[in-house]
Specification:
242 residues, alpha/beta, Rossmann fold, six-stranded mixed β-sheet, four-stranded antiparallel β-sheet, 10 helices, 35% helix, disordered C terminus
Length: 242
């Protein structure tokens, strides 16, 4: 039986003696999947384990299209087809928008994503192409971080808290963008604390508690299950109709 696009099996992670992940297992075949949970539950550590970002010590198996990722360098994982949008964006303040994008432009006509196509996806970046990373608004920075990840021409896009610090109007714009990308065939793994954004983008919802996957449900079920929201997420229920 062929491997899923992404298979996570029995993954644990430690920072020294402190355990951040415990026996995490799930698979992703395509489409959009969201992992939701409160702060400190291990969501970012899971992202870092998938894309090979140190310093956590990781055990278990993470396979992408059958290739083992645990122990691989992050640049090699990116070359396999995993794009990463990190929490906090991590842009270079001294580089312009265009410089951020041009340094990843493969100039290969066979590649799906080019700098020009990023500017078509996010026209605001084209307007700000000569501005430095530190001169952008939070929404513009997030667009640039997403564009940078897309220029690696990924099969799977992993995003860690993309709505963090953004105004509702920008979040709505990003939701529509992610839906469009999914329709074009891009698989998305969304790590989100914002339940409204997570349920708007992904039907499949994995709930992370204390370093493990505590429940798997759907966007519709999670949006209407007030007790599940309180017990696992510690948040006020979503407003009716969201």
């Amino acid at each position: 039986m062929p491997d899923s696009l992404l298979t996570v099996e029995g993954v644990s992670a430690f920072y020294g003696t402190a355990q951040a992940l415990e026996d995490v297992s799930f698979s992703l075949d395509g489409g959009a999947t969201a992992i939701v949970g409160r702060n400190g539950m291990g969501k970012t550590t899971l992202c870092n384990a998938i894309v090979g970002v140190p310093p956590a010590r990781v055990s278990g198996s993470i396979r992408f299209q059958g290739t083992e990722l645990v122990g691989s360098a992050s640049y090699k994982i990116a070359q396999l087809g995993i794009g990463y949008v990190p929490q906090g964006r991590r842009l270079f303040p001294s580089l312009s928008v265009d410089e951020h994008l041009r340094m990843l432009d493969a100039r290969d006509s066979s590649k799906r994503w080019t700098v020009e196509r990023i500017y078509e996806l996010f026209p605001r970046l084209a307007e700000r192409k000569r501005n430095g990373g530190a001169q952008l608004s939070g929404g513009e920075q997030q667009m640039l971080a997403i564009g940078r990840a897309l220029l690696t021409n990924p099969t799977l896009l992993v995003m860690d808290e993309p709505s963090e610090g953004l105004a509702p109007a920008i979040i709505e714009h990003l939701i529509e963008t992610f839906k469009k990308l999914e329709e074009e065939g891009l698989a998305i793994l969304l790590i989100e604390q914002n339940l409204g954004m997570a349920t708007a983008i992904a039907d499949r919802q994995l709930v992370m508690v204390a370093g493990g996957i505590a429940a798997e449900t759907t966007a519709a079920a999670l949006s209407t299950d007030m007790e599940l929201q309180r017990r696992y997420l510690g948040v006020e229920p979503l407003a009716e109709g969201r």
